[in-house]
Amino acid sequence: MIGKTLGNRYYIEEKVGIGGMAKVYKAKDTILNRYVAVKVLKDQYMDDDDFLKKFAMEAQSAASISHPNIVSVYDVGSSSIDNKKYNYIVMEFVNGTTLKEIIQKEGPLDPDEVAKYGVQIAEALDCAHRNNIIHRDIKPQNMLIDSEGNLKVTDFGIARIASTSTITYTSTVLGTVHYISPEQAKGKFIDEKSDIYSLGVVLYEMATGRVPYDASNAVGIALKHIQDDLIPPKEYNDGIPDGLNQIIIKALEKDSADRFISASEIKEALEDYRNFYYISQDTEKTAKIGENIEDQKTLSQAVYPPKKKITESVYTMDSNEDDEEEKKPSFFVRYILPVLLAFLVFMTFLFGRSIFKKNSTEDETVEIKVPIVVNLEEDKAVQILEEQGLKTKIDRIDNADIREGLVISQDPEQNTLVEEGSTVTLEVSNGQTEVSVPNLAGLTIENARVELRKFDLNIGEISKAYSDSFGEGQIIDHAPAYGAMVSPGQKVDIVISKGKEDKKVEMIQLIGSDIRNASIQLEKIGLHVGTIDRRYDDEIEEDHILWQQFREGTTLEEGSTVDLIVSRGPKESNEEKPNNESDDNPSSSNTVGSKKKKYNFNIIQPVQEGEYKVTIIKVKKNGDEIKVYEDMRSASEGDITISLEDERDAKFKIYINDVLAETN
Hints:
The chain is α+β, with helices and mostly antiparallel strands. The protein contains 13 helices and 32 strands. A seven-stranded mixed sheet has the order 24-26-23-32-31-28-29. A hairpin with a 4-residue loop joins strand 3 and strand 4. Residues 159-175, 282-328 and 573-594 have low confidence and may be disordered.
C-alpha cells in the first residue's frame, strides 16, 4: 500500500497500526494538504459481504458523532488500483501514542492522571450514548493520547446503533475479553452500562498496571468476570486514594444496576474523586459456575466456537432452619467464650504442628500458585511473593522504556505451581540510563536551562558568535548535538548569538570600466551604485567610469552606495550653419551661434524583461521642473539612446520607473 493513492486523493506514506479487520496507514490528503489516518480492510475480507457491511457500519456509526474526545471520520469509499479493490475509511490523524503503551511503559499512573484520562473517556462515551451508540470495545488500545495529553477514543469497529430499548447480541463475544462486561460474556442484554464496566477495567489497569481478571484462556477470563470477587485496586497499589478506589469498584459491579447510571455520572465522580464514597453491594449476588448450566453453554458459545464445552458441575447445599426462636445467649456465651475457644484451637494447632514436624519422617510437599507481580514496584512484588511463602531473587537490567524499580518479568511465570519456599527470579528495571539531548536551537539561555532540567541535564560552557539566522541572545548551536544519547547529569555546552556582524568591504578600482560591468562588480562585493552623473571627456570613452566616490582600498560598510561619474565621450564640435537656415529652424540647432543643442541620453537596460518607464525632467534656472519626455520602453530593445534638443547648458533629470537614475 505504501506509495499508492486512494480515491485520487489520499497518498499512503506509512503503516501505523493493524486491527482485527483492517490495517491503518498514515496518508497525505493531497487536496486539503493535511495528514489523515486511512483504515483499509484486510485482503481476506474484501470479498466478504458480511465484513463489508460491518465496515460500512463502522463508518456510519463514527461519522454520526462529533466530539473533541472522539476521533473524527472524514470520508469513506473504495478504490481500484492495479485491478485490486480497496475499501477504506479516512479519519483524523492523531500524532501520539496509545493509552496501553503509556501503561506498559510507566506502570501504575498517578491518580490525577488516571482521573484525567477517565474523565475524557467518559465524556466521549456520554456523547456516543446520547446518540444511541454503544462502543462495545472500550480498551486502552483504542485510546489515543496526543502530545498535549488529550485523549481521543477510536475504533468504533464493533459499535452498533442502539434502538431505544435493546441491542441484539450476535453469536460471538464482541470486544477484547479482558475488558468485557459480565453480561457481554454471558451473551445477554447489552446497553450503556457495558461500556461503563469496560471503562472501569481501563481505570483499574491505569491505577494498578494490571487488569482485574486474567487466566490462561479467553473462557477462563470471561468466567472470572462473571463469578470471581473483585480484588480492590488499592490492594495492588496502596497509593490509590479511597475515593478513586471506590469509583473503580462501583464501575466494576457485576450487576449492571449497581454501576454508575451513566457515563456522565462517572465523569462527575472522577472530577471530584477524592470526595467520592461508595458502599459495595453484596457480592453473593454473583452466580457461581454450575448454578446456571444454560449460562455456561451460552458463555462457551460466545467466547469460543461451539465445538468446546464447559464441563458442567453442580454444587449443592443443605440447610436446616429452626422454627423455634432461640433464647438470647448471655454476654459470656456470646462474646467471651468464642474468644477462649478460638485461642484454644489456635494453640492446639501450633502444638500439633510442632509435634508433627518434629516426629515426621517425611516432609510434606506444599504447592503454591505463583502470583503475577509484573509491572509492580519491586517492594510490592517482593511483599506479595513473601506473603505466599516464596523467596525472591532480583536481577537488575537496564531498560530505557520501563520506569526504574518496576518488575519487567518473573520466572516462574504467573499461575505456575511451585513448592513452598521456592525462589521466584524478578527482572527489575534500572530505568533509563541514557537520555536524548533536546533541540535547544533558537531558545534563550533561560528557556534552555528549563528544557534541559526535564532531561536531568545542565548548562555547560557558554560561548558567543555572530549569526545571520539567529537574533541576539538566541542559541545557535550546542554540544552534544540534538538527539545524542548521554548520561543524566551531563553538561551541554551552548553557543549564543551576538546578532548580525557589521561586515566591512574594501572599495575596488572602477575608473575606466564600463558602467554595466562596474555595477556588477560592486554588487559582488556587497556595495551598490549610488548617484550617476555624466560628463563629456575626450580621453574616456562613452559609458565608462570617469570618477568614483571612494578610492580603491577604502573600507566601507557592507551595503553602502558609491556615486559615479560616467563619460559622455568627446564633446561635439559646432558646425557652421548654411546661410539659408535661421536660428529658429530646429535642424540648425548645432550651427555656429545657435542657442540650441542636441542632447543624447543613453539608457542602460534597467530590467531583464517586460517594460519600463523613462521620464526626463528639465530643471530651469529658477529651479522649476518641467517634463520634456515620458514613454514606456521594452527590455527587448536593450540599451537605448533618447535624443532631445534644447537650449545650451540645460539641466535634466532622468527617471526610470519614477526613480532618479542620473542627472546631466
